Amino acid sequence: MSANYTQKSLSKVAAECDQELRDLWEMSMAKYDDLSVFVFLDESAVDNKTVQRSQGWSTAGSPCVWHMTFLRGTRYSILPALTIDRIIALDIFEGSITKEKFLSFLREYVAPQLNPYPGSVVVMDNCAIHHDEDIQRLIVDECGEKRLILKTCISLLIK
Questions:
Q1: CATH code of the domain made up of 19-44+72-151
Q2: Where are the transmembrane segments (predicted)?
């Protein structure tokens, strides 16, 4: 019986994923024939623990040991605003991203480059900070209604 089975790595799919909402989102995006209107915002960070492995190989009966630092070190964060053609705004700084830093980045670097409706469509992932009223209001004020898209597998919000 075991000849019919092989061990495989699991593929992870969010249990909350709603394929119907994903399909609706894709259909709503199909109306944009000019992809240059999209401005993508995201955030990322790196420190000494970022590249640490959690798995490795060793001989049977021997522990797998990797000597590593237990100190996080200095954390650097990056805030980019991207179009399909170029980076329109970029901020790299020491420390973590907060609502205040994200809002400041939007006000100083991103908002001046956004075009009012029908010019720019801002796309962000479903990070909790992106749902903040101040952040959403700033983008809607700069771009107009229906120009802020928070894409997620769970819900769809188009203001």
A1: 3.30.420.10
A2: none
